[in-house]
Amino acid sequence: MAQAGTVTVSGGGNVTPAKRLIMMGSKPKNVQPISELSVGDLVKDITTKYYGSPIIWVIADKNHAGYPDDSVTLLSKYILTLKCFDAKEPKNSNNGRQNYGNNRYLYSNIRQWLNSAAAGAWYTAQHNADEPPNNANVRDGYNEYDAEAGFQNDFSENFRNALLSTSLTVVKPNIDGGGTETVVDKVFLLSTTEVGLADEGYAEGSKLALFSDDTSRYAFVTASCVNNSEYTDQYLQPGWRWRWWLRTPNAPGVAGARYVSSSGAASTREAYYGRKGVRPACNLPSSILVSDTRDEDGAYIIQWRDN
How far is Cα 90 from Cα 97, in angstroms, rounded to an integer? Predict the structure, then answer.
């Protein structure tokens, strides 16, 4: 069987991704397609960063049902930052959303920020009552991010261009009509279904291979996450488990969104809380090349044509 990413050339014969690099004039390296790695392996693009450090990704699945064909799903290995799901909306006609934020992922601040590469202001109103996650609109003024660059701002151009648009099923809060809706994003939060927790009345995709039990959902913060957080806690430190947002709403409510607790179970908190962690996910083509050895972080390094 031909290697993933192999092409057939005129006259017969196959060209592997590594050989194709040589044909294109790139320096030969010991490389392999990312599809050759296993679920749970770590991957890094040294020029795709957050808070100035390369993001370490874990392979969460390969060729996952409902995701783009021939893709590999990456999830940030660590909690990168603490942010609110959505800011409170003082002009909203619903009292709960006025005071605690909006739990509809379609309109959430976090969704817009994750998919922005803006160097400055990334926020634009998504509906008539929408508000930015500024100091006045987040719980106790902790970790506003309206003035921060978009999440993808410090990504390499190669990594941004490789991101695959992914159709995601999201439960719609009952107040918004209930049922489900579809969003299409390149970077996203996972759902309760995808991390192996109970559905919110409807399946939001299917479980990713990385998740099997509470322990598999444990997540730890980076030192940069701690150092850049206005919120402090004795347990908020590298090496300690922390909570991280999912895209799933508490459907009967108007402001609550689901998150993974430090015990790996499902829990709920109002959207305007800036104390919960963010673990972004994305999909890359399975033909992307990586090193055949790990670096000091235990990660395989993505090899672009111009490396």
Answer: 8
What are the residues facing 285 on neighbouring strands?
A: 71
- Compute CA 14 distance to the chain's CA centroid, rounded to the nearest angstrom: 35
> For 142-152, how does the pLDDT look when each residue is reduced to its tens digit (9 = 90+)?
999 999 999 99
* Helix, strand and coil percent figures for the chain, each rounded to 5: 15, 30, 55
pTM for the model stands at 0.90
Q: How far is CA 83 from CA 113, 204, 209, 225, 243, in A?
A: 10, 23, 27, 10, 11
Among 301, 218, 306, which Cα is nearest to 262's? 218
The pLDDT, as a whole number, for residue 280 is: 98
Cα 292–chain centre separation = 25
- Of 280, 273, 260, whose CA–CA distance to 233 is shortest? 273
> In the beta sheet, which residues pair with residue 71?
285
Residue 220 sits at φ, ψ, to 5 deg, of: -125, 150
CA 245 to chain centre: 10
Specify the pLDDT at position 305.
Answer: 79
**What is the rounded average pLDDT of the residues 200-225?**
98
**Could you tell me the two tokens for 240?**
């300690």
Mean pLDDT for the chain? 92
